[in-house]
Amino acid sequence: MNEKAPPITELPEKRHVQTTFNYWDDPGDGSKPTPIVIGGGRISNKRPHLPHDFVVTDISGDEDKYTLDSHGFQYCRHESLEKDFVDEHAIQTLYYDQCRQFLKDVTGASRVHIFNHKVRRGPTQWHHLGFSNLTNRGPVTRTHVDQSYDGAELRLRWEFPKEADELVKRRYQIINVWRPIATIQKDPIATADSSSVPDSDLVAANMTEDGFKGEQWVVRHNPAHRWYYKNLLTPDEVLLIKCFDSTTWVARRSLHSAFEDAAHRDKESRQSIELVLGCASFTLLLVSPRGPDIDKLRGSDHLADSVSDLPAWRSSG
């Protein structure tokens, strides 16, 4: 259900947060990060991380300034027909269908494939719950990107083994659709401006999930990283997080992590649902204000005859 968003008459008061983000503790000897294994109701994650101080900027009132192609993330207003996210069948039918169309509207993709979803209602320290920790999955408090550049192609070939050789010739993306189930107070999610994170800060790390051998990015600390969030994100708002883009002249990935807001430390555990989607076979490429110029884009093999913008802080469709 995509209704036109009401006009914003007053800018909300911004609430920037002093906090810490956990970055991979690079031993400096060239060794690879410890692999992660997910399966059998459990996740093993023994990679060492260290906290580093940052200020997270609240983008409330400035949502239109941040887009997938300029920053690697984008906030949209989008009402879900599914509300509770406890019925797996309803999630994989009603909600999946709604999100497929939503992503087509936002990105211009002619094909959207959902390959994963995660509902999070668990405590902050859910990793330490033992052999059944995945049954009470909570927020991820370590900086990361879900797929490395090589990992994105591994996922594409896993999902589409017969079509992959053709699909890799086109523009394709992997995007997370992150939605609160209840208004977020404790452990909000933050994303980093892609332009503030050079590739040299990213380290490929193996991750196996239910038989799929993938690769993600862990992150070396860099004080130049710029972190953003939206205070009190509601269930009628979604955060789109770009994990990968095969096009190289736009934002290709965005670091993300939950973080602690000391003012809400004692609130109930955060509730959210995250869908992971692959978007391919683009017939229209949306251009953001800080994106590449129109003439360059018109030379792309994957660009339609017309190029248009879709404002982020309006409902799609």
Automatic annotation (TrEMBL):
InterPro entries per UniProt: AsaB-like
Entry's Gene Ontology molecular function annotations: oxidoreductase activity
Keyword Nuclease found: no
Keyword set, alphabetical order: Oxidoreductase
Coiled-coil segments: none
Family: Belongs to the asaB hydroxylase/desaturase family.
The protein's name in its UniProt record: Methyltransferase
Taxonomic source organism: Karstenula rhodostoma CBS 690.94
